[in-house]
């Protein structure tokens, strides 16, 4: 009669993994072991076992019960999509019920086929190991799965030395564990803890590392491949040692068949699987799923900021080993749009530059251009949430995050804050300033003569129209009139600290991170309130307990009067609205077909090109430039309006798909009058916003002619030369601001703005 425990019938259920009798091939060995252990050696060993068991009961039970495998922390987007995992040991805890039986069978066949029959220690294998030690002094296997668990559970502290005494301690603890815990509990821990090569710990991590799928999707052949790693994870690695992995896989499949875990047909079908094709087809996905390297994350620049935040808050060990669940603010739909549109635009620019340099015989000077994009949410209750962030072309090559680490000159994109300071200190959108040549003495016999973009002057001009044209001279005069300290204070409240003490501040001579610039611009649609950018909303531990919740603990910082914020915002809407034959610098933003406001920015020699703008729903900043600060080029083709604004438009167009068209909220204390956009008087049809109690004039008499005479000396247009502020000219209201200080130093540019009064769309 055939022994059912020794047949080759396939196991189809858990009961099939629990043999009633030992396998036939092991019967004689077991008999001999039992006979020989009747000797004094075994008696002494047994006595030692009993003594050690008695003295380890409580410690073993508690240590095993308290053991928590090291688990990485998973990062999720706002819509629940997994971005990646911060981990030192790639491991994903799964329930035994979630692990397919054929995966369990593969492991049992190669490591401990009679796991469900023994009580933690195999007596026959134990005796063989004792015999080898006494005869030759060598130690060898004989470890059951329970004993391997003991070895890998750090709190049990049985040691790793290869001695008979360590083996005895291991066996004692294994016996105790088998008394306290079920077989399924022990096997579950083993399958989640065992090392399987590279960084994978546990069968699910191995499935993702080698095959790019979860353990539930492994084929029989793939399961056998993973089981084959148990004896030698490096030697049998299917990625680096395919030949060895294939041979070992087939051995495991044969063992599974011999144990009755699979049929001959299943074995042969699994052996026919193309292991090389399986690995290669899924390698890219596998690398991303298994790696704790941020470079393999989705939204890597954003994810790196999350990692740094968590490290500061919780420390390295907790982030990488305690299985935190991290909810972030990133919207992966918006993030993918941002990555795509920025890359496409930068690639197109590179191609154009490459062709130009090749034509000029200077191809060796080519360098890929860089860029950054940050999008913040303006909607309640998500104000300040970072919805998209791109800090460079490719995180694997450029880990430097331009969005959060680079400090670049803002150029003319700083001007809305100068205008806001003016509105808060007696100016109105209709206030007239004379745009005319401006001179100022400098040390060393030089003269500072700043210019407008294009070198032209407009004469008397309302400050509304001056912002639309990005007039440098008007910006200088406004800063001079209200006082540089007033402008600096406003910038700092908006989150743009600066050490520029002179009038160069009006032209963007300071530096700002794109992330901070975006948060500062968001002050305008958020009613004068500044919200700190938020990357992480919630952190929970592996048990689901809250460790951090930022959603209800954010307090905005008042940055400016809500009325001032709105009046300035309303002028920035004009920057994006062509009309009456006039094309302002940000006219391309009008393609969004909804209420939009913003400002272009270009520094000297076009080293930085910006567009900063917002709708009621989102604030987005785009920067384009070279990392080494070289010029982008010369002329209107290299301005913020030409380079950055189209990227902004394409991103915002897709970001707003499905969102309602909403007007900006008007705060109390703001009134509206119909004005002439070009003159600022009541003689027009353009609806302008004013602080309550102020109104535009019905008629503005022409100012007296200005005939500035250049001072003697060498004329320079770059304020990086330094100097002192000049007296304002034109019709300026009196202010209470402090007098401007000395002209500050501008490292590379002045923030020359793009201007246009043409009847054709400008390229600035």
Topology:
Layout: H1 27-36, H2 40-66, E1 73-76, E2 82-86, H3 101-111, H4 123-136, H5 145-152, H6 164-180, H7 183-193, H8 203-211, H9 220-227, H10 242-258, H11 264-271, H12 275-290, H13 300-314, H14 316-321, E3 325-328, H15 332-359, E4 370-377, E5 386-390, H16 415-423, E6 432-435, E7 440-442, E8 446-448, E9 459-462, H17 463-469, H18 472-482, H19 484-493, H20 514-521, E10 529-530, E11 536-540, E12 546-549, E13 557-558, H21 562-575, E14 597-602, E15 608-614, E16 618-625, H22 640-655, E17 670-675, E18 686-691, E19 714-716, E20 723-724, E21 742-743
Walk me through what this model shows.
There is one protein chain. The protein has 764 residues and is of the alpha+beta class. Among the domains are: 1-7 and 23-66 and 113-194, no CATH class; 411-523 and 559-743, 3-Layer(aba) Sandwich (Beta-lactamase). The protein contains 22 helices and 21 strands. The strands form seven sheets. The chain has a five-stranded mixed sheet. α16 (415-423) packs across α18 (472-482) and α16 packs across α21 (562-575). The radius of gyration is 36 Å and the shape is elongated. 48% of the residues are buried. The model is unreliable at 1-11, 19-35, 285-292 and 718-764 (pLDDT under 50).
